[in-house]
Amino acid sequence: MHILAIVWHPNARWHALSEVDKLAYLKSLDVYINAGRAGGAIVLGWSKIDQTLPKAPEKGFVGVFGLSSAEQVHEFEKVVVEAEWYEYFDSTNISIDLLGATEPEPHKIYARLLNVSLG
Q1: pLDDT at residue 55 in the model
Q2: pLDDT given for residue 119 in this prediction
């Protein structure tokens, strides 16, 4: 499973909107999220970032989505662009293809990722 995590926070253009316009925009996102779902995206959820951890961002939120392939990640990204998300939110997008969920020796996964020979 590929995971797309969008780490985001509102920008000045968002803050300039009236409350009515903010709510209207947020409601418009339903169409785009549901289009992503229809295309096979699994919405894993949204959250405010826990800022109590060391090295956590000072502000922000995250949306997490499950997708079946790298191609599907890119298709979902097109939906994000179409929704004009980047007009109102500064974002960092992280796409990953998870490995090692059941690996009993996790160092092997780290070695593979870092191109370290296991000897």
Answers
A1: 92
A2: 83
CA distance 90 to 103: 35
At which residue do the structure tokens 């300039």 appear? 16
Q: Nearest to residue 13, comparing CAs of 111, 84, 69, 83?
A: 84
End-to-end Cα distance, the chain: 29
pLDDT value of residue 101:
85
The residue type found at 2 is H
SS (H, E, C) the chain: CEEEEEEEEECHHHHHCCHHHHHHHHHHHHHHHHHHHHCCCEEEEEEECCCCCCCCCCCCEEEEEEECCHHHHHHHHHHHHHCCHHHHEEEEEEEEECCCCCCCCCHHHHHHHCCCCCC
The dihedral formed by the CA atoms of 79, 84, 89 and 93, expressed in degrees to the nearest 10: 30
- Are the CB atoms for 60 and 7 separated by under 8 Å? yes
CB–CB of 68/4 below 8 Å?
Answer: no
